[in-house]
Amino acid sequence: MKLIAPTVALHDSWLRAWEEWGTLDQDGAATHWARDLDLRDPADFATWVERLNSDVVPEGYVADSNFWMVEGDEYLGAIQLRHTINSPALAELYGHIGYGVRPSARGRGLAREALREVLTVAYDLGLHRVLLCCRVDNAASISVIRACGGVLEHVRPVDEFARSHGVTTPMCQFWLETAS
Length: 180
Ligand SMILES: CC(C)(COP(=O)(O)OP(=O)(O)OC[C@H]1O[C@@H](n2cnc3c(N)ncnc32)[C@H](O)[C@@H]1OP(=O)(O)O)[C@@H](O)C(=O)NCCC(=O)NCCS
Hints:
Shape: globular
Oligomer: single chain
Number of domains: 1
Order of helices and strands: EHHEEHEHEHEHE
CATH topology: Aminopeptidase
Largest sheet: 4 strands, antiparallel
CATH architecture: 3-Layer(aba) Sandwich
CATH superfamily: Gcn5-related N-acetyltransferase (GNAT)
Distance between the termini: 20 Å
Strand order of the largest sheet: 1-2-3-4
Structural class: alpha+beta
Radius of gyration: 16 Å
Bound molecules: coenzyme A
Helix content: 25-40%
Number of strands: 7
């Protein structure tokens, strides 16, 4: 598996992965940048890819780095590193890093491999510790985070703030050292 910058070359494979997910709501994939687009359309897909690779930070967001997990010309998943935490939502519900693996590629350790690599990217950006947030019932993700050295700091109960962001399950807050 390789981590690469998002590319239009994987459009067909990305569409097959979308079918597997059955939803545009795919962790780590930053599909919120595509809400006004039809990703089946090559031109719209190219616009989304351009947004993912852009250094321009839209109002209300923080700078981020987006990577795709690929094997050959097959898209397997996505991982996003947010360079700063500047809001209660990032600090308490989302953290620095999000990721997702397409259903047919799960169970092969890909997320663990991707997270390890992105921790080195974070280190190179000057982040010596990163926050990862994960639902208490997400056993696979908790296992990935622990395998990468995550230390559970707090389990955040559901409250009005969480609900206002659509979060209805307690969230584990893990901190990970980025230097190995
Ligand atoms: C979480 C996710 C990224 C894990 O990716 P993955 O590449 O499939 O991870 P793995 O298959 O290597 O699984 C990691 C570990 O979880 C375990 N695991 C997988 N599914 C599990 C389950 N349903 N219950 C318990 N453990 C599970 C695996 O056995 C493995 O354990 P090990 O490290 O002890 O061998 C993937 O399941 C996914 O995309 N889920 C939907 C999106 C998501 O939840 N993203 C994370 C948000 S915090």
